[in-house]
Amino acid sequence: MKVRLPITAFLVVCAIAFLLAGCGVYSSSGKSELTMGVPPAKAVLEQIKPGITTLTEVLKLLGPPEFIIDGTQELVDYERSSGGVSTRTISAPEGMVILIYTLSLTVDITLDLRTLGGVTMQMDRAIHNNELFIFVSKNDRMVASLVSGRGSE
Amino acid sequence: MDVRKKFVGFVSATILFCVFSGCTYTYRERVVHSPILASNVPKLVKGTTTRSEVMQWFGVPDLQADGSRITLYPESPMGQYRLHGRARLIEQQSQFGKKGSLANPLAIDPDIYEKIARLRPYSSIDDAHVALLYEEMYYLSQSASRVGKDSHLRNQLLIFINKATDIVDDFAYREEFRADEVK
């Protein structure tokens, strides 16, 4: 009897904790955020000027690009949050290559799980990306133009 | 008996603390070269360093581009990481027995790592150069009961080697995390 009491109390506490934890999981909504890379400062980007800045200077300012496109190539984006893959085709103009830098990428995932009327789940995902395309001439290795693209879904 | 009561009280308090405060979960993943890239980057000198010295200091690159022809090296740290990731996914899929969706994030396409690696366009700018790309990765995931924060950082070293002379013509290094500090 003396031994049973604490064991019973322990089991009861465990059961209550389990129920509370279960409710917490199945009625919760959560937010997850994925960030990639350290975005360069605006002042650094302003130093890149078409017709003046060379490839060497771009590499010195921004480091290695994420991709270097020569001709027409398919680019795969791996969405770590969903495990999905999306593709896009990018073409560099004749005599040029495109250096692509991912300036920042943030993925917000909001998860909503409810038990009312059975378990239902809802997931909302928002991707905020900011890319920089730098067109470099193959002949003189000079920056021809640069385009900053912002995208979100 | 007192010891037993204390034990029960301690376990109960721990469980209740976890339930009400929410457990914090931290996951770290680190893929680095040996030795780390940062240790040998200062040795690189444009117009002087040879290709054999680069291979000696940094080992096998993760990616080599000759023109726009890409070669991936599975024996590099990132290559090994992709192979292990793929093996892990195949194992998970076989356990669950089916392909999943958003609701079952464990079941991802097992070829995803190969697809990404194979379709990563990189070019050495022109046919006179070879580009060697070395990468290191640090992934940190932190989640409390309802809030998660993941960050994905990389160190990248890009070296252009003149094919005619086998000398380093240009290089660039970007460090997003200190490989010698993170574990």
What is the N-to-C order of secondary-structure elements of chain B (H for helix, E for strand)? HEHHEEHHEEE
Task: Determine the structural class of chain B based on helices, strands and strand pairing.
Answer: alpha+beta
Shape of chain B: elongated
Kindly estimate the percentage of residues of chain A that lie in beta strands according to DSSP: over 45%
Task: List the total number of helices of chain A.
Answer: 3
Based on the model shown, name its key terms.
heterodimer, A: 153 residues, alpha+beta, two-stranded antiparallel sheet, 3 helices, B: 183 residues, six-stranded antiparallel beta sheet, 5 helices, elongated
Structure commentary:
In chain A, strands 1, 2, 5, 6 and 7 form a 5-stranded antiparallel β-sheet that branches. Chain A has a two-stranded antiparallel ribbon with strand order 3-4. The model of chain A has no long low-confidence stretch (mean pLDDT 78). Chain A contains 3 helices and 7 strands, in the order αβααββββββ. Chain A has helices spanning 4-26, 42-46, 55-62, and strands at residues 29-36, 67-70, 72-79, 84-91, 96-114, 120-137, 143-152. Chain A starts with a helix and ends with a strand. Chain A is α+β, with helices and mostly antiparallel strands and 153 residues long. The radius of gyration of chain B is 23 Å and the shape is elongated. Chain B starts with a helix and ends in a 9-residue tail after the last strand. The longest helix of chain B is centred in the N-terminal third of the chain and has 20 residues, at 2-21. Chain B has helices spanning 2-21, 37-40, 51-58, 77-96, 112-118; strands at 25-31, 63-66, 69-72, 129-143, 147-162, 167-174. In chain B, strand 4 and strand 5 form a beta hairpin. In chain B, strands 1, 2, 3, 4, 5 and 6 form a 6-stranded antiparallel β-sheet that branches. Chain B is of the alpha+beta class and 183 residues long. Chain B has 5 helices and 6 strands; from the N terminus they run αβααββααβββ. In chain B, helix 4 packs antiparallel against helix 5 (112-118). At the A-B interface, helix 1, strand 1, helix 3, strand 2 and strand 3 of A face helix 1, helix 5, strand 4, strand 5 and strand 6 of B. Strand 1 of chain A pairs parallel with strand 5 (147-162) of chain B.
